[in-house]
Amino acid sequence: MSNARIQPRPVADTTGRPDFISIKNFGFWYGDKKALESMTFDIPERQVVAFIGPSGCGKSTLLRNLNRMNDLVDGISHEGDIAIKGQSIYDPGLEVISLRRRVGMVFQKSNPFPKSIYENVVFALRVMGVNNRAVLDEACETSLRKAALWDEVKDRLNDNALGLSGGQMQRLCIARAIANRPEILLMDEPCSALDPIATGKIEELIHELKTQFTIVIVTHSMQQAARVSDRTAFFYLGKLIEYDTTEKIFMNPGQAQTEAYISGRFG
Amino acid sequence: MASPSSDNSTPKGEPWVWFTSVGLLIGLSMVAGLLGLVLINGFSVFWAPPVPTVKFKDGSEIVGQFVQRRVRPNSPASDPQYERQYQIGLRELNSTSYVWVDELNIIEEKIVPETLGLERMENGPAFITPKTIVDAAGKPHAMDATAFAMIRAEVEHASEIRERVLDINQNKIGLVNAEMEETRISLRRAEDRQEPTVVLTDKLKTLDTKFAELKKEADEISKLTARAQLEGVDAKGRSVIIPFAGIVRAWEPNRMTTMDRIGLMFSRMHEFLFDAPREANTEGGLMPAIFGTLVMTVFMSLLVTPVGVIAAIYLKEYAKDGTVLRVVRICVNNLAGVPSIVFGVFGLGFFVYVLGGTIDQLFFSDQLKYNNNTPVFGTGGLLWCSLTLALMTLPVVIVATEEALSAVPRGMREASLAAGASKWQTIRDILLPASAPGILTGVILAMARGAGEVAPLMIVGVVKLAPTLPIDGLAPFLHLDRKFMHLGFHIYDLGFQSPDSDAARPMVFATTLLLIILVVCLNLGAITIRNRLRARFKGASF
Ligand SMILES: Nc1ncnc2c1ncn2[C@@H]1O[C@H](COP(=O)(O)OP(=O)(O)OP(=O)(O)O)[C@@H](O)[C@H]1O
Ligand SMILES: [Mg+2]
Questions:
Q1: Could you identify the atom of ligand 1 that is nearest to the CA of residue A63?
Q2: Pick from B198, B233, B256: which residue ends a domain?
Q3: A41 within 8 A of A20, measured Cβ to Cβ
Q4: Which chain B residues are within 8 Å of A67, Cβ to Cβ?
Q5: Residue B338 belongs to domain spanning
Q6: What is the pLDDT of residue B540?
Q7: Hey, which residues 412-431 in chain B have their CB within 8 Å of chain A?
């Protein structure tokens, strides 16, 4: 039944920069605990990359490093570097705030603000100092359309966002994340709390969004990774085991561990 | 692994359920008892029961309102004898308003329909048998069927005139007085600096004439009712003459219907809430005290909320975790346990003398120099009371705000930061609105504690009787330097400092009732606001 919703995956766009996000010898610690072993790989522009691996292997940790969300945690440290379009995200000249404006994020548990739907969507613009009503209206409509939510909420934009259903809230969070047109969209298990229909909608959405954004998605569902991503990275115990095109990972994995995980023999 | 007795044993927690419910029961019954006592005693102040004429064995009589009955001291426990207290009023004749009489001496209590109750500006109530009404024109009228209506009309007329005189005395003359005061200070300054003083002395003269004119006007008006009086006899047959100008209210306790009594009760409640006190606070209303308590509490909340919230934001969001922070937290929490009188002493020593003294030096040096060193802010007042209580309740607000900030779901904070908001934007746009209900809870607790506090206020600006209100029509309208009246202090003063404790007792209960109602109202208001805010977050967890 859910197969009916699987869309044919569009061919990967290879016109973009192949090292759009470049992870170089990157390792990461929470206090004394090493969460990520040193790893190196590139994420190409306007492609969808899926992070898969068993629970606790460091997928979220790496994802949250891409917009420096981990800065909120005390006692963290890292080695190596991550660069976006050639510029290190740890560059002292780069403000975290401007980095986060370029890298949007959608969380596992939808987390709308207790404000109106409209204010939720335009939040990122408001904090950038945009207050022109026409600009905000336009951004609100475009983002909600892209997030496939516009038709459902266009008559109740001023209602509280907490009155939406779980799936609608998650799409609202996506709309909020893309409202200020970031270059990269990070999604940490965006569908884990959703039913198959809402999941299908979000997957369709990812297909559409990737024409404009570079998307990194963490997922526990092999099918989802296979359906939406162009490339897949498999992690295990904080190590990057294998990173390749999704086709290769799923049809002909290079590592025994990858093969075992994908076929469901552990994890 | 199931234990063998698990099938037939009673649930283990059962006795504890009883134990805890007994604890709750004791607590609840204590609260109910307190409220019941205050409620019954408080409301009896307003109720007008029939007033009996009591006949004694020796042939004497009294007319008075029954107050209470108790076992006579040194009567045998096996055969208790009782005595009764009556309020007989007419203090100028009887020297005391309340008498205790031995029940054994009473022959009978009879209800005489003619008995008239009078509430007066001075010397407490009077219970008399009226004989003649002299109207404003000096014409006497005998008692007939319409006599009581006439008495009421005269009382009404007299109180209208009283109000007009009061308006002149308080508002108009008060204005002139304030202006005179100012002019005198300017005059002294001008003399001191050897500047010309003609303009000022002239102004003073004009003001003097104005003052005299107003006084004369007030006298003229009060003359309108000067001749109206009520003549009657008391229980001992002495003749009593009471001018209508001194009567606040008249009622016929033994002829009234229940509806009349209820009407009288409301009229007394109205006076209680909206009028100024009379007779060393034992009668009249509590308006200045209610108003003072309200203004002080609201002002205190306005001071403590921003300071507490800002401090909590710093502690929670900006301060680096470490020894210093931990010490600060401990200090804040301990501040909540410091006895309130300590805050009063601090308020007097620091706020009043140091801060107030400095303010006077800087901004009111003329006032000090040319007005016999009368301090403006260098003495107790509304501002210092509010500040002292704000300091006292600061920990409550800080702790509540910190907790409310911690309770904001992490996801919301992360979402905001991930959207590119700065830390301050996140605090302002997301954290503060989301924690507003929790912050308000803290403010409610602070208000409840502040409104009921007395000890520190006694030394930083609350007085027994304040001639003026902290807010009035004179610029700058809100007088932060003024001393004011406070319900809590009023209770203490009435109950324990009053020369006539019998007369004060009902007022103590009524005031207590009012203070409780006031605190409940303040809390209900804040709780309503909080619930409105909370409703916005409904469905936040699903
Ligand atoms: N804030 C933190 N402080 C300390 N250790 C952390 C923190 N967050 C994660 N970790 C640890 O880092 C490791 C990787 O965690 P991470 O959340 O990245 O796993 P994950 O792959 O996302 O798992 P899941 O699929 O369950 O979400 C785990 O061992 C976890 O315990
Ligand atoms: Mg995770």
A1: 18
A2: B256
A3: no
A4: 418
A5: 287-538
A6: 45
A7: 412-422, 425, 429-430
Residue written as token pair 């308003």: B97
What does A168-235 look like in DSSP terms, one character per residue? HHHHHHHHHHHTT--SEEEEESTTTTS-HHHHHHHHHHHHHHTTT-EEEEE-S-HHHHHHH-SEEEEE
Output the CA torsion sign for B342, B343, B344, B350: positive
Residue B249 in domain: yes
The ipTM value here is 0.89
Whether residues A123 and B421 touch (CB distance < 8 A) is answered with: yes
Q: Is the CB of A196 under 6 A from ligand 1?
A: no
Which atom of ligand 1 lies nearest, measured to the CA of A53? Answer: 21
Distance from CA of B423 to the nearest CA of A (A): 9
Structural domains counted in chain B: 3
For residue A60 and ligand 1, the question of a CB distance below 6 A is answered with yes
Contacts 24+ apart (CB under 8 A), B105-110: B105/B56, B105/B57, B105/B58, B106/B54, B106/B55, B106/B56, B106/B57, B107/B55, B107/B56, B107/B57, B108/B54, B108/B55, B109/B52, B109/B53, B109/B54, B109/B55, B110/B52, B110/B53, B110/B55
Averaged pLDDT, A103-109: 91
pLDDT at A15 (0 to 100):
78
Which ligand sits nearest to residue A53's alpha carbon?
1
Interface test with B, best of A73, A111, A216 (most B CBs within 10 A): A111
Each residue's pLDDT tens digit, A24-36: 999 999 999 999 9
Q: What does the pLDDT read at residue A5?
A: 44
Are the beta carbons of A124 and B419 separated by less than 8 Å?
yes
Q: Name the nearest CA neighbour of B420 among A233, A100, A223.
A: A100
Clarify whether residues B242 and B380 are in a common domain: no
| CATH number of the domain enclosing A130 | 3.40.50.300
Q: Do the domain assignments include residue B13? A: no
Closest CA to ligand 1's atom 16: A58
CB contact under 8 A, B417 and A176: no
Shared domain check, B348 and B237: no
Pairwise CA distance, residues B393 & B233, whole Å: 57
For the stretch B165-203, pLDDT in tens is 888 887 788 888 888 888 888 888 888 888 888 888 888
B318: closest CA of chain A, how far (Å): 12
- Indicate yes or no: CB of B416 within 8 angstroms of CB of A180: no
Residues lower than pLDDT 50 in chain B: 1-3, 5-6, 539-542
Q: Is residue A267 part of a domain?
A: no
CA distance A131 to chain B (A): 15
Distance from CA of A161 to the nearest CA of B (A): 9
Q: Domain span at residue A201?
A: 4-262
Mean per-residue pLDDT over chain B, rounded = 86
The percentage of residues in chain A with a pLDDT greater than 70, rounded to a whole number, is 94
Question: How many alpha carbons fall within 13 Å on the CB side of residue B523?
Answer: 14
Q: What confidence tens digit (pLDDT) does each residue in A195-254 have?
A: 888 788 889 889 888 888 899 999 999 999 999 999 999 999 999 999 999 999 999 898
B280 occurs within a structural domain: no
Residues of chain A with Cβ-Cβ distance to B434 below 8 Å are 113-114
**What angle, 0 to 180 degrees and rounded to 10, lies between the N-to-C axes of helices A166-178 and B410-418?**
30
With 0.95 as the threshold, say if the pTM is over it: no
- As for how many domains chain A has, the answer is 1
* pLDDT tens for each residue of B224-255: 888 888 999 988 888 999 999 889 899 999 99
The reply to whether ligand 1 has any atom less than 6 angstroms from the CB of A61 is yes
List the CATH number of the domain containing B294: 1.10.3720.10
Same structural domain, B218 and B303: no
Q: Which residues of A touch B541 (CB under 8 A)?
A: none
Same domain, B85 and B140: no
CA-nearest residue for atom 14, ligand 1, is A58
**Do the chains contact at B418 and A166, CB–CB below 8 Å?**
no
Same domain, B300 and B236: no
